[in-house]
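User: Can you predict the 3D structure for this chain?
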Amino acid sequence: MKKVRFNPYWLYAAFILLMFYLLFAKPSTEVPEITWQKLETALRTKSVQKIVVVNKEFAEIYLRPQALKKDDFKDAAGQNLKAYNGPHYIYKFVTPEAFENQVLSTIEDQFRQDTIGKTPDQKVLLAREKSIPIVPETRTNWAKDFFLYWILPFGILILVWYLLFRGISKGQGGGGPANIFNFGKSRATVLEKGEHVNVTFEDVAGMDEVKLEVREIVDFLKNPQKYARLGGKVPKGVLLAGPPGTGKTLIAKAVAGEANVPFFSISGSDFVEMFVGVGASRVRDLFAQAKQKAPCIVFIDEIDAVGRARSKFNISGANDERESTLNQLLAEMDGFSSNSGIIVIGATNRVDILDKALLRPGRFDRIIYVDLPELKEREEIFKVHMRPLKLAPDVSAEVLARQTPGFSGADIANICNEAALIAARKNKDAVELQDFLDAIDRVVAGLEKKNKIVTEEERHRVAFHEVGHAVVSWFIKHGNPLIKVTIVPRGKTLGAAWYQPEERQLSTWDQLFDELTALLAGRAAEEVFLGDLSTGALNDLERATKQAYAAVAYFGMSEKLKNISYYDSSGSQEYYFSKPYSEKTAQTIDEEVATLIQKAYDRAIQILKEHFEEVKKLAQLLFEKQILFREDLEMILGKRPFEESTNVSSENDTQTSTHVENNQRAETSSITDSQQKSNEAPIS
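Assistant: Here is the predicted structure, written as C-alpha cells:
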C-alpha cells in the first residue's frame, strides 16, 4: 500500500465543512409550520400554553400536555418523544404587532362567548384560564454571526489579497510558489538533462555556417576532453544577430534538442520590471541556478530589451532599473567570480543598440550573423517546410526558391502554410504549384479584392501606370525581368508590376540609376498619356526618394559630394548631437537628389515617347484582360534587347508567378546591399 501523505489543505476543507454545518444544519427535530386557522382553533380550545416571538421573525407555539393527546395535533413536533417540551409549531407572520393583536382579539372573543350566563366567580376562573403569555425573545447564533461578521469579510479580503499578489508574482516573479516574495526569482524555462526537445539541426535548413558554429559548442559540452587536451576553452557567449524571421530562436531550440545538458530559456523582457532591483535579482537567481546545474546553456531571447547601450547622461538623477539589470548581467557573464561551464546564447535583431561592454570578448566571444537565405538555402528551407504537406508532382522547391528572393525562413513557412490552406479551400487532394504561387501573391500584396469599387477612369489610369513600369523596365539594361503586370486590386494596391529581381550583393551607379528610372516610369506614363498626375505614385516616389538620398548621402555617388558618406554603420552616432554636416551641405544634398530624380524622370519620359504606340496597345490590352504576362509583352514589344540574368527561371511556370519582395522588405534590407528588390507600383 502506498503511504498517504498529510496535506495541509485537508484542514482548510474540514474548517469550511464545519462552518457550512453550523450555518445550514437543521435541528434534530424539525418543527412543523402551523396555519392561522389551526392556531385559532388551538387558541379557542385553550390548547396553547405559551407563544414565544423569536427575533420578531416568527412565533413558536407551545401546546399544553393534554392537548398533545388530541388527534388535531398529532403532527406536532416531538409527538413521538416522551420528554419534549416544545416548541410544537412555528407560525410565520408579517409583523409581530399584527400577530399579537390578532391573537389577543381571538382570545377576547372566545372569552366573551364563554362568559355568557356565567357567575362572577366563574368569570374570574375563566379569565385566569384565558391568559396566554406572549414572550418576545432575542436569540443569537454565535457560530453563524461569527462566521458572517468576522470570518467571511476577513476571508474575502485575504482571498483577494492572495489572488492579487499571486497574479503579480506570476507575471513578475516565478520559480517556486507564486507569492509576493518571489519577484526576484528567475522565470527561465528549464529543460533538464535528458528532456526531449523535438527540434534538431536536421530541422534547421539553409544555415550551414551558423550550424557549424553552434554545433561546436554542443560538441564541446558532449566531449570536452577533445578541446581541453589542446588548451582550448569553449566560448562563454554566442550572440545570434540578424533580421526577424531568419531562424535565431530556431537555432537555439536545435541546440536545446542536440545538447545533452540543462538548458535555460528566458526572454530579455522578463528581467526588466517596474520594481527597483527586481531585474538584477532575477539575473543573480538565473545564474545561481545555472551554476548548480553546470555545465549548461542559458538562452536569452531578444536580449536588446535588457542589453541596450547605457546612457552617459542621467538627466533625471533617479535610479535606472534597466541599467542596473544590465550591470548585473555584465558582472555575471564575466565578472570577478567565474562562471565556468555556463554558456550564454543571446538572440537579437538590433545588435547595433547593444552596449559595447556586452559585446566584448569574454562575454559574447562570437557574434554570428544570421542573414536572409540565399537561393540554395531557400530551396532547402522549402523542402523542410514541405515535408508535412501532401504535394502534387508539379511542385518544385527550386522553382519556388527562385520566386522568393529576400524572403526569410518565417516567410517561407508562412507561404507553405498558406498554400495548404488555399488548396484545402479549393477541395484539392494535393497542394499544387499554383497554390504556392497564389500564396506568394497573398503574402506579398495582400488578399485579392474582387468586390472593390474602382471606376473605369481609375482602371484606365492604373493600366497606363503599370504598363509604364513594365515598358521602361523592358528597355533598360539593368531592369529586373518582368513576370506579370496586373490591375487587379490586392490589399491596399489597385495594381502592381511584378518582377524577379536579380540577387546581387553590390550595385553600380548604372544599376541604381536604372532602378530609379523604372520606379518613376509609372508617374511618367500618367503625364505622357493622360496629361495630368495622380496620388497613385506615392509609394514609387517614396522609394525613389530614399534610394536617391542613399546614393548621394551614403554611397558618395553624386558629382558635388563624390566619395563622401554620412552613414553611421554602428547606428549609435555617439559623437553627434545632430546631423553630421552643415546646412550648406544639407542644401547641396537636396539639390543633388532633386537633380538625380529629375534626370531619371526625364529618361523615363523619353523611353515612353519612343514607344508611344506600343504603350497604348499594352495599356488597352491590360485594361481588357486585367493581367498580362511576359509573353504578352514579347508579342507587342518584341524580345527584350538585353541578356537576362541566369537566375531567371526559364520554365513556363513564371507566367503565373508573382513578384516576391514587397516594399517593407526592400526598406529593411541592409543599407550596403543596394539592390532594389521590388518594383511594385501600387495606386492608392
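The longest strand covers residues 48-54. The chain has four domains: 31-139, 184-310+320-369, 375-445, 456-571+580-668.
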